[in-house]
């Protein structure tokens, strides 16, 4: 006979009963002195942290990155040196839906990776698309408000979404991706990931480069049609969580090939597109993708709350050899993520096992709610008591010159900058006839929701006509709007 452990309360004291509260006689009222019952109810009331304000619904897994090529001439980042293997945790997500929302909703997918490197954590918090809806963080909360729920009826509202998009022409490229079948991936395993922003790499000699990350799925791209996605939304709202969990559980470990595009530092100034504009890609003809490694997911979380819900990713976690670029969106995100974690998870979120680096932390920050980092004297710097000292050496090569007037302004335009040229290239040169047909159908379906006004439908047609006249024509016909 196997002996089972005794239940305890949270102080480790043996629990008197898993079934019965303490009462005055079998039928009498309960007693406040039943601490075990009180603790159980009080703890239950505190089981949730707030859901993420965006990307609330998701799932994740552990894995590792392996670098197969020598890129030391571009970066000294230790995790990108040939032969290196780095543990990681990846969280996938949808953006606009709440915790219980369906995984197959039309939405970009988050693709957030925490690399536990020997120089501390490096977080790459990307999406399954190489671009985004806007290019200035000033517009982010407004954009998200337009995608979530109305103030009055608490409903999501397609009219509101098209209102924002059609008034923000820089969204056209991302909305083209979103409305294509890539807006409803078959599973997280069957989509690419992108760092999306441009980042800085610098090597041991101080040479600098601009780079973009592409994680290409080794499982192949597979998407759902709008009808398939809608059917799964009701039959299995957790379809993507289930798919990833089951695959890993059964030993099918998904992997992604890591490619980078590398631009010489000096080439940015007069490149034909603004290379820091998050609504643009770097066309492959200009900067081909170079394969440098692969990552694999091979281990499911043991506890969803501890590892997935409490994971806190932050684009500001940048290790030596890697830096930020002047992309205004990235600059905004450097502030936003650590700030939201301080609120959502708590001041010592970085001490939780999922967020803690796998190297010693010797910072002078300490105390606060729920800390268990045992700070030792000296508690200040500079000190003459042998405490840790900061070292600029690993960051040598990261600095570069910027100058200009303090303004509130759009980016200055580069030769080919235009909001429609890249979505037009996608429509004209990349999408198949079937892709185009589905794109038109998905837009028409979305803009046919009862709340979308006749006036808004005209604006929707005008928006797509700017991308391509055939696309505008298809949408006009589908919505029953004259294409003028
Ligand atoms: P290329 O023909 O060299 O690249 C086209 C890219 O599009 C490939 O990365 C391809 O990779 C991807 N693609 C293929 N089918 C689709 C689809 N249905 N939806 C979205 N992406 C798809 O041309 P360019 O580099 O000149 O880019 C042309 C356009 O392709 C861009 O304007 C952009 O809209 C889109 N694109 C470009 C990317 C880039 O980094 N240059 C990346 C992704 C898209 P795969 O099939 O493996 O996804
Ligand atoms: C999550 C802000 C743009 C990808 C979040 C969260 C915030 C936020 C507050 C919630 C984090 C949490 O509670 O843990 C912003 C701001 C942006 C921006 C202010 C622009 C100014 C982007 C872009 C991308 C992106 C451009 C992708 C390229 C993600 C991902 C998550 C996320 C993947 C989920 C991370 C996770 O799995 O925990 N964002 N975001 N965001 N964001 Fe952004």
From TrEMBL:
Q: What is its EC number?
A: 1.11.1.6
Determine the domain of life of the protein's source: Bacteria
| Pfam families the record matches | Catalase, Catalase-rel
Report keywords, A-Z.
Answer: Heme, Hydrogen peroxide, Iron, Metal-binding, Oxidoreductase, Peroxidase
Enzyme's top EC category: oxidoreductase
The segments labelled Disordered in the record are 1-29
Supply the CDD domains for this chain. Answer: catalase_clade_3
What is catalyzed by this enzyme?
2 H2O2 = O2 + 2 H2O
Asked whether the UniProt record includes Iron among its keywords, one would answer: yes
Domain named Catalase core: residues: 8-389
| Protein family (similarity comment) | Belongs to the catalase family.
Task: Extract the PANTHER family matched here.
Answer: CATALASE (PTHR11465)
- What this protein is called in its record is Catalase
- Native organism is Nonomuraea longicatena
